[in-house]
Amino acid sequence: MENLEKAIAEIKARMPGLRLKENEPMAEHSSFRIGGPVRALAIPSDVMGLTKLCAILKEHELAPFLLGNGTNILFPDEGLPELFIISTERLTKLFLLPDGAVYAEAGVSLAKLAGFAQQNGLTGLEFASGIPGSLGGGCVMNAGAYGGELKDAIESVVCYYLPEQRLYELTKEQCRFGYRSSLFQNLGGCVILSAVLRLEKGDGEEIAEKMKELNRRRREKQPLDLPSAGSAFKRPEGQYAAALIEQAGLKGYAVGGAQVSEKHAGFVVNTGGATSHDVYELMVHIRKTVYEKTGAKLEPEVILLPPDYRLEDHGPAAPGHRVSGPETE
Ligand SMILES: Cc1cc2nc3c(=O)[nH]c(=O)nc-3n(C[C@H](O)[C@H](O)[C@H](O)COP(=O)(O)OP(=O)(O)OC[C@H]3O[C@@H](n4cnc5c(N)ncnc54)[C@H](O)[C@@H]3O)c2cc1C
Hints:
The protein is α+β, with helices and mostly antiparallel strands. The protein has three domains: 2-87, 2-Layer Sandwich (Uridine Diphospho-n-acetylenolpyruvylglucosamine Reductase, domain 2), CATH 3.30.43; 94-208, Uridine Diphospho-n-acetylenolpyruvylglucosamine Reductase, domain 3 (2-Layer Sandwich); 223-324, UDP-N-acetylenolpyruvoylglucosamine reductase, C-terminal domain (Uridine Diphospho-n-acetylenolpyruvylglucosamine Reductase, domain 1), CATH 3.90.78.10. The protein is built from eight helices and 20 strands. The protein has helices spanning 2-14, 47-59, 110-119, 135-141, 183-186, 204-221, 241-247, 276-294; strands at residues 19-25, 37-43, 65-67, 73-74, 80-87, 94-96, 102-105, 122-123, 144-145, 148-149, 154-161, 166-171, 190-197, 200-201, 228-231, 254-255, 258-260, 267-270, 303-304, 323-324. A hairpin with a 2-residue loop joins strand 9 and strand 10. Helix 1 (2-14) packs antiparallel against helix 2. It is globular. The site of flavin-adenine dinucleotide has 33 residues, from strand 3, helix 4, strand 9, strand 13 and strand 15.
């Protein structure tokens, strides 16, 4: 804590123009609309500012937590008083390179990136136009939908490796993308700054039509009217998490304000006033029930904070806890 306070004082002195929010409630930065305050949230205006911030934090033996659009994270209600968050929301450079590849900074939204590709007659990112994340978060998660994954379009990623305070340009292979996974999840300390995407030439109108159709399907199937973080669990191999949860009788099951969506059982939604503990308990319950009833093990897709939180360390919802839903009615 002492280091953090010293680092914040130094950041204020050395970076007076930096947008720095102290004791910032994370509910305002998370698509779940859940989460108490973090000690500080900085929003650097460019890559230089971001790396300078990282360097100052490193001098104080601190590592920041990187925030994209906050569409795949659950922040705890009690806040994270020891966390310094850096948001990439202002890293939004996006242009075509002379050889036709697309260069984008980490904070560019996937929707904007897909729209840019369409406007330039480039196909391969239609699947991403409805994913509400940023390119940086998308690379960490290897975001995907409707048969496409970000890894199919990525040629290389530039990241700032905190332990060495060095920039690396990683090829797609070096990023070790897998289903909703990447090197960046397993190797701490990589701050994604930008990526180059290689796309095929296509017909602008056809690309726009495909994006429209995929977004229509998304609106039809997903509970986009309620706060969530998308799919709560990853797909176990050869199976669908939503189908398993439904099979376990949990569609509509709720803990406090957190509910297994009635529209799409793969989503945990905030029906109003959900706490992070409601969501944790619901996820623990889903995982346990699905395992008991189907034998399948579900792993969370949502990043759960604090970083050492593991669903498997927690039992099912305690008897008498505010639990409602089909099974308890
Ligand atoms: C309604 C809804 C629908 C969704 N649909 C899909 C879908 O179809 N497919 C899919 O894959 N996902 C989906 N998601 C989940 C989410 O949008 C994706 O996982 C997305 O890639 C997360 O991006 P983000 O910018 O919001 O990342 P965040 O949620 O901000 O961060 C996710 C992780 O990435 C890290 N991170 C973010 N930026 C950086 C960076 N620059 N450098 C290093 N680490 C970083 C964070 O620390 C965190 O660990 C959906 C979510 C919602 C709410």
